[in-house]
Amino acid sequence: MSETNYKKIATEGLWNNNPALVQLLGLCPLLAVSNSTVNALSLGIATVLVIGLSNLCVSIIRNKVTNEIRLAVFVMIIASVTTCIELIMQAFTFELYEILGIFIPLIVTNCAVLGRADGFAAKNQPIPSLMDGLMMGSGFALVLLTLGMVRELLGQGTLFSNFDLPQGPVASNWTLHIIDNPNYSFLFSVLPPGAFVIMGILIAAKNKIDAAIKLNQSQSRSDTPQHVKRIRVTDGS
User: Of 59, 81, 148, 208, which residue is most buried, by most CB within 10 angstroms?
Assistant: First the structure.
């Protein structure tokens, strides 16, 4: 696959076909877990690994699976990868694993994971499939991280609180107190209704940016001088 195609894969996953902002997939964990930066980042990294590794495995065995059982096999692969990620988190970041709870196993039911496995990995070579999974997962993770940072900032006035859960005691002083007021609290932003509102603002912002880019491109084309081919006509008499 050429470099241009890899660039297209990255653009599709991160922006043009972003699973969260465009396809609107995986909204349940996206809105439920993103009440803090550390939760959002942790689930985002887990999702990136699951989509990337699942795409790689599906691409490797794609020619050995019949159409009748392919979806069942894909789900088994996704569930196996998710279980491995869950066990790793349980072993090394147990407190964070307890906070995320059921939303780690729920990655198996994320339509974005199965959609990329069946829609891309089942039809392409392993390396492009891995790239597609990593970019789609990264696009989802970036939206998740943005949502988590905004909700934590508005709700608690801080950023990067509780980072000692995944990083250990070394990260206990990483918390940034943006709003230096111990009594500050905006409960709405950390509750599910606040997540829906902020998510809607992010989707609207993306649509606005896309519209501005499209308008700029159309104006650039209209400003480009059109070369008219001149045809010489002679009298045949």
Answer: 148
